[in-house]
Write a structure and sequence with these properties.
The protein is mainly α and about 150 residues long. The chain has two domains: about 1-30, no CATH class; about 50-150. Helix content is about 75%, strand content about 0%. It is built from seven helices and no strands. Helix 1 (about 1-20) packs antiparallel against helix 2 (about 20-30), helix 3 packs antiparallel against helix 4 (about 80-100) and helix 4 packs parallel to helix 6 (about 120-140). It is elongated.
Length: about 150
Amino acid sequence: MVIRRATTATVAIVAAAWVAGVAPALDRLAAALEIGPRQHAPLSPPAPPRLRAFATFATWGGLVLEAVVALFHLLPGGGWIAAVRHAALLTFCVTTYALAPVAGFGWLLAAMGIAQCQAQQRALHGAYVAVFVLIVLYAELPWAGVLADWTAR
């Protein structure tokens, strides 16, 4: 019975955190666990300005790029729509997997892109093969550490 009451109280506190915000719920959780109130310290140290700017750009740029990829893959047709479709997908793979090297998913997207190519589109086939190789290089080269050092200044 004690475990059930503790579980019910924990679920209620987590629900309150979702509705009312995290800080007051953490205080209630600490009181319920008899730890004492939270000291209201910042949750993380302040980020350097370059890192904050890079994170903002990467977040919003990624969101816009994902929306463009989704929109142009939902639109029927060829011609300029297909060109934008391929350009957006290639750009997404080149930029996203540089920061989040999840090779399997990147290769899946590249394979789906190459499957949409026409037989005579040799340059586009080559671009998708280059993306396959680039995703492997992203995972193997420590360039993300260099980027992290640059943004930490």
